Structures are given as structure tokens and as C-alpha cells.
């Protein structure tokens, strides 16, 4: 029989990790540097966090996220893995093509105002199907929807050459929108699904 943990037992001790850094050190610059360092560990194959149950239990009653990541729902871009972050370290707001709507913006605002994150990072990625669908000609048979309409407004689909340029423009436009909405430091980056590397496009 599966040995369920005793619910009356105290949570296991949690090894020191970056999210336990004192709150006064959690500047936006520190938060961005922490994410960049985590991605470097991920690319080098030296990730620290294996997402163990003990870490999940330890974070259950006192999560202290320091960043919110606005990213794509794409299955190839799990943000906790990409940035080598443990339970309780980051909030993830994910929509197709990281397209913003009222609920997504409100979620980011809650991360800032309620949970006190120091940084909001907008994360686009290469080979994004939502960007590709936005750039596809109407003759392709793909129907426009709220996601592609949002992306089209951000990139100005006419005249954009290539998915890479469109992705970068969409990230920058999303950063601009959030900077005017959430009252927090906002940066932008693009994740390369072929290499695992994150390129920062706009700093705090």
C-alpha cells in the first residue's frame, strides 16, 4: 500500500535555495540575474532542482515567489525547468503565444500586489505556433481568434519578415503593455527551443 505522509507531521526542512534570500535583496535586477543563472544551469545540465515532493510540501504553507513569468502554453517551455526554479519560486501565467487578456493581466497584478514578486518577465519562444498562425495568410484556411488578433495588433503582421522578428516584436509590445498596467518592473526574453537558451531582450 502506498505510504501516504502523516498530515499531522511537521513539514520537512527545506534546503537553502535562492527563493529564501532575504526580501530586501529581491530587487528586480537580482530577480532577473537569478533567472538568467538558472537558465545557464539548465543549459549546462547542472540543474539543482529535481522537483521533489519534499520541496513541494515545504513550500505549501509559505510560498515566496520572487518573479512572475508570462509565457506561452507551449509544452516545450515549462518555465520552472527552463529557469531551474523550485516550488514556490516563480508564478507562471501561460496563454497561447503569451497573448494578454483581462484575466492574464489581472493574474500578473495579483502576483505583484498580493504575492510581492519583484519582477515580471515576458517570455516568448522560437518556433511558436501562435506566432506562425498569426503570420499565415488568410488563404491558409486558419481562422483568426482572440490569440492571433492580439498578436497581430502587437506585431503589425504586414511587413514583418520571419517568425523570429515577429516574436521579438510581440515580446517587446507585451512588456510595454504590462509596464503600463501592473506597477512592477517588467523585462522581456525569448527562449530558444532548439538550444534551451534564454536571450534577454529588454532589461528592467
Describe the structure.
Residues 1-19 have a biased composition (Pro residues). Its cofactor is Zn(2+). Keywords: Lyase, Metal-binding, Zinc. This is carbonic anhydrase. The chain is an alpha/beta fold and 204 residues long. It has a single domain, classed as Beta-carbonic Anhydrase, Chain A, CATH 3.40.1050. The protein is built from seven helices and five strands, in the order ααβαβαβαααββ. It has helices spanning 28-44, 53-59, 79-82, 102-113, 129-135, 146-155, 163-179; strands spanning 67-72, 90-95, 119-125, 185-191, 198-202. It has a five-stranded mixed β-sheet, with helices on both faces. It is globular, with a radius of gyration of 18 Å. It starts with 27 loop residues before the first helix and ends with a strand. The model is unreliable at 1-24 (pLDDT under 50).
Structure described in brief:
The chain is α/β, with parallel strands linked by helices and 204 residues long. The protein has seven helices and five strands. Helix content is 36%, strand content 15%.
Count of separate DSSP helical elements:
7
- Return the CATH topology: Beta-carbonic Anhydrase, Chain A
**Total tally of structural domains:** 1
CATH superfamily: Carbonic anhydrase
Helix content: 25-40%
- Our measurement of the CA-to-CA distance between the termini, rounded to an integer number of angstroms, reads 51 Å
> How many beta strands in the DSSP annotation?
5
Order of helices and strands: HHEHEHEHHHEE
* Rg from alpha-carbon coordinates: 18 Å
Largest β sheet strand count, sense and barrel closure:
5 strands, mixed
- Give the DSSP E fraction (strand runs of 2 or more residues): 15-25%
Shape: globular
Structural class: alpha/beta
Low-confidence stretches: 1-24
Cofactor: Zn(2+)
Protein name: carbonic anhydrase
InterPro entries: Carbonic_anhydrase (IPR001765), Carbonic_anhydrase_sf (IPR036874)
EC number: 4.2.1.1
Amino acid at each position: 500500500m502506498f505510504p501516504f505522509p502523516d498530515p499531522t507531521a511537521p513539514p520537512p526542512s527545506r534546503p537553502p535555495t535562492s527563493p529564501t534570500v532575504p526580501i530586501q535583496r529581491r530587487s528586480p535586477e537580482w530577480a532577473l540575474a537569478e533567472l538568467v543563472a538558472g537558465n545557464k544551469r539548465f543549459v549546462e545540465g547542472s540543474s539543482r532542482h529535481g522537483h521533489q515532493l519534499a520541496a513541494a510540501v515545504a513550500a505549501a504553507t509559505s510560498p515566496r515567489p520572487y518573479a512572475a513569468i508570462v509565457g506561452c502554453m507551449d509544452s516545450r517551455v515549462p518555465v520552472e525547468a527552463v529557469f531551474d526554479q523550485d516550488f514556490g519560486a516563480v508564478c507562471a501565467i501561460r496563454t497561447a503565444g503569451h497573448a494578454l487578456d483581462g484575466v492574464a493581466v489581472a493574474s500578473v497584478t495579483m502576483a505583484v500586489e498580493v504575492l510581492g514578486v519583484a519582477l515580471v518577465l515576458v517570455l516568448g519562444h522560437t518556433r511558436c505556433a501562435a506566432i506562425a498562425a498569426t503570420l499565415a495568410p488568410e488563404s491558409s484556411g486558419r481562422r483568426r481568434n482572440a490569440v492571433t488578433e492580439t498578436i497581430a495588433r502587437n506585431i503589425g503582421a504586414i511587413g514583418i519578415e520571419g517568425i523570429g522578428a515577429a516574436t521579438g516584436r510581440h515580446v517587446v509590445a507585451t512588456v510595454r503593455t504590462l509596464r503600463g498596467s501592473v506597477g512592477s518592473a517588467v523585462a522581456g526574453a525569448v527562449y530558444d527551443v532548439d538550444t534551451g537558451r534564454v536571450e534577454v531582450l529588454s532589461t528592467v
